[in-house]
Amino acid sequence: MYLRKYKVAAIQLDTKNNKPDNLRKACGFIEKASAEGAKLICFPENMNLIGKNLGEGGNAEKIPGYTTDILIKQAQKYGVYIHSGSFRESIEQDSRCYNTSILIDPDGRILAKYRKIHLFDVNLPGKTVYNESGRICPGDEIAVADTELGKLGFAICYDLRFPELFRQMAVGGAQVIFMPSDFTRDTGQAHWEPLLRARAIENGCYMIAASQTGQKPHYESNGSSMIVDPWGNILSRAEDMEGIIYGEIDLDYLAEVRNQIPSLKNRRLEILACNLR
């Protein structure tokens, strides 16, 4: 039986090159959000580190491990669900790592794990060269977790540009989708909001999009964390600073929207299945 209505918090961070400091700050936001009644608390991409961090906690880590252990204790302490955003998961015998999200329940159990599937590789001569796959290993599994909060789907940052991933999650039952990100200012100002609203509208789902903000070593993060409802309404949006935004998840409203716009039911699979590759 699902909890039909509950409060969710999305944490906007300006993560730096010191893992212990970043996580102490994250714990402070968890305490504040839980005091405000949030049942589910969500973080952005690279929530524990942006940089090399040669000190405590290291760089990429195992799961369970340094960051996971801290978040588990926070979930148990405050009796909340925590979506980790994402952080670097180490891979044995590989110089690369995974960009990984986990979901922790109030008892401290890891309910689901998702590794970012789509990696940003681009080579525009004289303009932009970026090879994410040189340091990140792509995941190969779609994740939807069945919890008391409903069915929760997982994506990370660049995944947002691939609508077929979100459609598969929705067809698999996802009602709420996590979208932790670190969009740059240039692409974020043009694409962040329309893509989030489109994914919500297309699939009749809530989008919880916690984002990075602030100046990073090589770029400026877009910020503008959002919670979007199944109709495409922006329930809350963060300003250009660290902080918490809140929204209400209403699964009865979600069902109403899906009945009103039954695009999931009206798909022509006999045609699509033959022509899509």
Explain how this protein is built.
The protein is an alpha+beta fold and 277 residues long. It has one domain (5-275): Nitrilase/N-carbamoyl-D-aminoacid amidohydrolase (4-Layer Sandwich). Helices cover 27% and strands 28% of the residues. Strands 1, 2, 3, 4, 5, 6 and 17 form a seven-stranded mixed β-sheet that branches. Strands 9-10-11-12-15-16 form a six-stranded mixed β-sheet, with helices on one face. Strands 7-8 form a two-stranded antiparallel sheet. The mean pLDDT is 96.
Unreliable stretches:
none
Gap between N and C termini, in Å? Answer: 37 Å
Structural class: alpha+beta
Largest sheet: 7 strands, mixed
CATH architecture: 4-Layer Sandwich
Look at the structure and give the mean pLDDT. 96
Sequence-ordered SSE layout with sheet pairings:
Blueprint: E1 5-12, H1 19-35, E2 40-42, H2 66-78, E3 81-83, E4 87-90, E5 97-104, E6 110-115, E7 121-124, E8 128-131, E9 144-147, E10 150-154, H3 163-171, E11 176-178, H4 185-203, E12 206-209, E13 213-215, E14 220-222, E15 226-228, E16 234-237, E17 243-250, H5 251-260, H6 269-275
Parallel strand pairs: 1-2, 2-3, 10-11, 11-12
Antiparallel strand pairs: 1-17, 3-5, 4-5, 5-6, 7-8, 9-10, 12-15, 13-14, 15-16
What are the main properties of this structure?
6 helices; 7-stranded mixed β-sheet; single chain; 6-stranded mixed β-sheet; 277 residues; Nitrilase/N-carbamoyl-D-aminoacid amidohydrolase; 17 strands; 27% helix; alpha+beta
